[in-house]
Write a structure and sequence with these properties.
Blueprint: E1 7-11, E2 17-19, H1 22-28, E3 32-37, E4 41-46, H2 47-58, H3 62-73, E5 76-78, E6 85-87, H4 90-95, E7 103-108, E8 113-117, H5 118-130, H6 132-142
Antiparallel strand pairs: 1-7, 2-6, 3-4, 3-5, 4-8, 7-8
Helix pairs in contact: 5-6
């Protein structure tokens, strides 16, 4: 798979569907999983990435599994329609602040796609530019892609 790169802005329609750029869908393949991230955004990932996440989760200590359980509680398999739209469940929209008519940032993140409230994403990007040492550290601490806290 080629690296997923770039940013696109969309709006969620009245039926709670979000149009995913064609090039992202082609690279991700199917099936796809929509996963909540503790940093208030969603990850759209292919089966292989989902399988990696399950494998890492199964090797975590019991206490850490309890802390990360909500990731699996609010994850769902999604099937793009013929136009490339995915349905985003209400709970996931709430957790990622994708409410009302907000603008949504769809961000290529190497091997998955991040789905952000555009205002939250822009604030996060601004903080990264202004305070890279603080944001980078806190993001690593909360990023579920790693099985342990960052040791930096």
């Amino acid at each position: 798979m080629m690296a997923l790169v770039g940013i696109f802005y969309q709006k969620i329609d009245e039926k709670s569907r979000l149009l995913i750029p064609k090039q992202f869908l082609q690279e991700l393949g199917e099936p796809l999983f929509l996963v909540v991230n503790p940093k208030e955004y969603l990850n759209l990932m292919p089966q292989s990435k989902w399988d990696d996440l399950l494998e890492r989760y199964s090797s975590l200590p019991r206490k850490q599994k309890r802390n990360n359980r909500f990731i699996f509680t609010y994850s769902t398999k999604v099937d793009p329609d013929e136009k490339g739209r995915i349905l985003i469940p209400r709970d996931l929209r709430f957790l990622a602040k994708l409410d009302g008519a907000c603008s949504v940032a769809i961000v290529g993140a190497n091997d998955n796609v991040e789905i952000w409230n555009a205002d939250v994403f822009n604030s996060f990007q601004e903080a990264c530019l202004r305070f890279p040492e603080k944001v980078g550290q806190s993001h690593a601490e909360y990023d579920y892609h790693t099985a342990e806290k960052s040791r930096d």
